Amino acid sequence: MSIFTQIAKSVYSPKAIAETRFQGIGKTILFVFILTLISILPVVYYMFVGISEAVGSVKQSIKTDLPSFTIQEGVLQSDIKEPLTIKNGSFTLIFDPTGAIAESELAGMDANVAMLQKEIVLAAGGETNAVPYSFLTTESMTKDDIISLINTAESSLPVLLGILFIVVYVFSSGMKFIEVSLLALFGLLLKNLAGRKLQYRHLWRMAAYSTTLPTIFFTIMALLKTEVPFSFSVNWFVASMMLLLAIKELPAKKHSES
């Protein structure tokens, strides 16, 4: 049976999950890697699109909407007397060489990027991350230098996104293996409650396939950009129930007659 057939059957069939308990560990590990890959595709896609659009919007806004400026000795300098707020579609840039806006004020200002007097700030999800200009360069930079730097970054974007994909995939795979291992440990309790004779190695294989239904469900929700309330609890409840149903598909332990 191919791995993709197993994915399909594991969504609805506890019996198919139970049959994997004697499967080779290599195939089960490969299954976990492929399931992880499927699960991160929507997140990675929207992340890549967002980054690409953000880089393009930043370049366009700086090029056409901002006045001339320089960054010298770690300080943003320009002739304007008050902060500028520039909107480009869903992207918002705040430009403030005056020092009127502090980083702490940005969380509630719905800005994606802010060029403040001494730092550039990236804002997302209500959190802000500031990078001082002195950290980026010790030399004087002009508006044209910044645009040239963004052009270089844009041309390198496929490589940077590829590295980001690898980082996300490795991290997500590690989390999935931890999830499967913890679920298999919980399976030791479930198999005792169900009166079935199973070892941890059998439960680990079954636990891997028991995560298929919640993983596919949350992948679809991510693709639709739909938030699921209590997602952590829902994930563990569904995976645990699938594992319990798979355990119950096995013959019960035989008790010796007195």
Topology:
Elements: H1 3-12, H2 14-18, H3 25-64, E1 69-72, E2 75-78, E3 84-88, E4 91-95, E5 113-115, E6 119-124, E7 127-132, H4 133-136, E8 141-142, H5 143-155, H6 157-194, H7 200-210, H8 212-223, H9 231-248
Helix pairs in contact: 1-8, 3-5, 3-6, 3-8, 6-7, 6-9, 7-9, 8-9
Task: Please supply descriptive tags for the structure shown above.
258 residues, alpha+beta, five-stranded mixed β-sheet, three-stranded antiparallel β-sheet, 9 helices, 59% helix, elongated
How would you explain this protein's 3D organization?
The protein is an alpha+beta fold. Helices cover 59% and strands 14% of the residues. It has nine helices and eight strands. The protein has helices spanning 3-12, 14-18, 25-64, 133-136, 143-155, 157-194, 200-210, 212-223, 231-248; strands spanning 69-72, 75-78, 84-88, 91-95, 113-115, 119-124, 127-132, 141-142. The longest helix has 40 residues, at 25-64. The mean pLDDT is 88.
What does the main sheet amount to?
5 strands, mixed
What count of helical segments does DSSP give?
A: 9
Mean pLDDT: 88
Beta-strand residue fraction: 5-15%
Helix-strand topology string: HHHEEEEEEEHEHHHHH
N- to C-terminal distance: 43 Å
Q: What fraction, in percent, of the residue positions are helical? A: 55-70%
> What's the count of strands?
8
Helix/strand structural class:
alpha+beta
- Spatial order of strands in the largest sheet: 3-4-5-6-7
